[in-house]
Amino acid sequence: MKKFTQVMMMCLAPVAFGQTNYTVNAQGTSWSPNDLTIDLGDSVTWINNNAGSHNLNGTTATYPQNPQSFGMATVGTNWTFGKRFNVAGIYMYRCDPHSAMMTGKVTVVDPSLGLGDNAVSAITFGPNPANDVITIQTKATDFNVVIYDMAGHQVLSENLKNKNELNISSLKQGTYVIEIRAEGTILQDKFIKN
Question: What's the sign of the alpha-carbon dihedral 118, 123, 126, 131?
Fold first, then answer.
């Protein structure tokens, strides 16, 4: 019976912990695709087939909001890097030499918790791109918003109480990561400041 249980657990492990591998390719100065949503336990393989000199930086030193660090610090050509994602959350990453334009995001959801589109839609924001104000839609009346530049530095932080508009007029034009925390839910996404 013990041996049968062990065999059954080995057969069910890929189902319980994901079994899909996704590929992200370095193409010029961008990742393709640059935005993935995967299940807990799935893996991603980044490939640079001599498409320039790149690295992969998803470290918590660069992106403190990432649930875990990952990456390949060495800049070079013709490399492959793989990671299995065993912690749910949103992972931002970049190529350091091309950090202004070569960024990406992996959203890892736990299907057993029912996370995904329905949970993420509990918090929305817009417009995107935005000029001076971002409007945030959530049921919460008290929530935190933090904005990071693409280097992972915090550039704006505000606790919004009984209001849903965030003034971003002080930010320079560019791409940013917005993190909204409301009632135990976290939304992290990219937005563009015009």
Answer: negative
161: CB partners within 8 A, 6+ apart: 141, 142
CB 143 within 8 A of CB 174: no
Contact 158, 125 (CB under 8 A): no
Q: Please give the model's pTM, rounded to 2 decimal places.
A: 0.58
Report which residue type is found at 180. Answer: I
Question: In angstroms, rounded to a whole number, what is the distance separating the alpha carbons of residues 91 and 38?
Answer: 11
Residue of 84 and 138 predicted with greater confidence: 84
What 3-state class would DSSP assign to 166? strand
Give the span between the Cα atoms of 166 and 128, in whole angstroms.
Answer: 13
Q: How many residues does the chain have?
A: 194
Residue 103, CB-side half-sphere exposure with 13 Å CA sphere: 21
Domains of the chain: 2-113 (2.60.40.420), 121-193 (2.60.40.3080)
